[in-house]
Amino acid sequence: MKQRPRKVILRKLLLRRRGNKRLWPALLSLCIGTLILLYAIILYTGFRDALSGKYDKDSIEGTYLTISKEIDANQEITKQKPALFSNTEIRALGSIPVVQDIGMFTSARFPVEVAFTGDSTQFSTRLFIESVPDRFIDDKPLDWYWQYTANEVPVIVSTEFLNLYNFGYAPNQGVPQLTKGTIQTLRFTLKVGTGNDAAEYTARVAGFSHRISSILVPESFIEFGNQHYAVAQPEQQPSRLILKVKDPSDELLTEYLHEAKYETNNELLRSNRMRTVVYGATLGMGLLAIVLLMMGLSVFILFAELTIARAQHNLQLLVQLGYSPRFLSRFILRRYVFIILGVMIAAGIAAIYAQVQTAKAALEMDLYIARFPGWEVWAALAAVAVVLLVLVKRKIDKGVNRT
Amino acid sequence: MRLSINHLVPLPLKQQHNTYNATAWEQDMVFNQGEQVLVQGPSGSGKTLFINTLYGLRKDFAGKVHWSAYNLQEITPMQLSQLRAASVSIVFQDLRLFPELTVWENIDIKRRLTDTVTGYDAEQWLERLGLKNKMDMPVSTLSAGEQQRVAIVRALSQPFEWLLLDEPFSYLDFFNKQKAIALIKEVAGYTRAGIIVTSVAMNEDFVYDKKLLL
């Protein structure tokens, strides 16, 4: 005599395996539908986070905007005072909801000259240097500080300048192109001030910035220089500002900048266009996912109904023998819980993989998004699972209570 | 547990009511625990209807049926299943076995409901009714008489205060019937359970306290 656990006998009576082939397409459709839905959310949240600068390493520069005032022809000719931002204008900018932070460019009010003497090359040029608050610097070097006793000054150069040199100046002049690493090993002479107040420092390129198109030195150096080497100029208002914004394509912000005749880097438009494309694509994906999910769900529910219909006679007899409808409902539901959990786990694992791959691909385009799915993805997964369970449970209860 | 019926008339029989001289319908009756009752009537007289109504399978009746304080027309599915599992057992006239299960699985699915009857006891009962060597056979391969004996053992494989038997020996020969009666008396005797038996003919299979005519 074969002793079998009761659940094995009940399974034999209620969950016959015949006809299970119909289940696989439904499960596949559910899994793919869920995965596409999750992927749409991954893309949406990833792009949204990149725009809002959640990971603070974005390179779209959509979240950090450098703005300046438009210079009109009249101003150019009459040589009026430069277009500077007043405190009122800065406060007004700060009151725009999407503006999260404002940083002022502080320019050196003293003459700066940089010189380089190599084995075969020598050059010397006047240039400008600026500083911004440290929190606005992308890829801030570890040794980004300067004390007034130090002779060496770290400098951050815009990657645009390096590109101009490597792809413009060097081929044109027949001089070698330079890598970031090579440049960082070089030492330059930085002459500041004039006459008796002049001083010399050693400058080295400590890093490169995608975000800020300038030559930056630590704020402490500019402050020190403006105090000690400034030619007679009063304290000036900034001519450029760097804004950290939640969403650079925000209508209120774009309108304000346009009306106030402020100029900004055109990356804003790029991210805005990208946003439209990505949001449109994710919306399309989401709709496709919902259609697929509905199809999978219909077939899945149909399968559950069919299983119950096939077991209807046995269910009725089990109830007549003393089994409670609730117990039988739960017994059947348990099987679907395992199936639904299996599908959700498979979709969850695929979503993690998709997120990792997306993060990698985005990194290659200098876009930083999270490497692990956020709460929105898990919430969507849980919501799909709950909806599935509730619908299946209702069908089972209805079928069992028919006994 | 006391079973009682008050002015019970199944709706399918209501229009024919006047033509009946039955002693069961439209009466107030109480069956006390331990009583043995015979419900006798010719084929088609409503014996199965009476048993099914008493067991709570049908609700299309006028009047009332009570299992102790439980009114069968108001009882919840949960309460009914608990009482069926622990207090009232039945042998259906049409047996209602699971044809896809073996003999033992048919017994076990009932026995495991409460786990009060041991596997050893159930096996002994099958042996007494001559089914020991058929325990692993699908019940669909058995003869009607063998299936009826399986249904009897299944009904005994739970605790009960009442055993409803709807023409339980109709397929059995004399010797097998005697063995089945002896087994039922013995098991029902352990708990002084009441028995209600339907039959087409008068009989003295049990020592009846009441006899109802349909």
Briefly say what this structure is:
With 403 residues, chain A is α+β, with helices and mostly antiparallel strands. Chain A is 53% helix and 15% strand. Chain A has 3 domains: 6-58 and 272-401, no CATH class; 62-104 and 241-263; 106-237, no CATH class.
Describe the overall structure:
Chain A has 403 residues and is an alpha+beta fold. Chain A has 3 domains: 6-58 and 272-401, no CATH class; 62-104 and 241-263; 106-237, no CATH class. Helix content of chain A is 53%, strand content 15%. Chain A is built from 11 helices and 12 strands. Chain A has helices spanning 6-14, 23-52, 73-78, 87-94, 159-173, 180-185, 219-228, 251-259, 267-321, 325-364, 375-401; strands at residues 64-69, 99-104, 106-107, 112-117, 122-127, 130-131, 152-158, 188-192, 199-209, 215-216, 240-245, 262-264. In chain A, strands 5-4-8-9-7-10 form a 6-stranded mixed β-sheet. A 4-stranded antiparallel β-sheet of chain A has the order 2-11-1-12, with helices on one face. In chain A, helix 2 crosses helix 10 (325-364). Chain A is elongated. By secondary structure, chain B is α/β, with parallel strands linked by helices. Chain B has one domain (3-213): P-loop containing nucleotide triphosphate hydrolases (Rossmann fold), CATH 3.40.50. Chain B has helices at 11-14, 47-54, 77-86, 103-114, 119-128, 144-156, 174-190; strands at residues 3-10, 28-31, 36-40, 61-67, 70-71, 88-91, 162-166, 194-199, 210-213. Chain B has a 5-stranded parallel β-sheet with strand order 6-7-8-3-9, with helices on both faces. A 4-stranded antiparallel β-sheet of chain B has the order 2-1-4-5. In chain B, helix 4 runs parallel beside helix 6 (144-156). The longest helix of chain B has 17 residues, at 174-190. Chain B is globular, with a radius of gyration of 17 Å. The model of chain B has no long low-confidence stretch (mean pLDDT 91). The chains are: A alpha+beta (403), B alpha/beta (214). The A-B interface holds A 1-4, 6, 9-10, 12-13, 314, 317-327, 401 and B 55, 57, 77-78, 81-82, 84-86, 90, 96, 98, 100-102, 104-105, 108-110, 112-113, 119, 123, 135-136, 158.
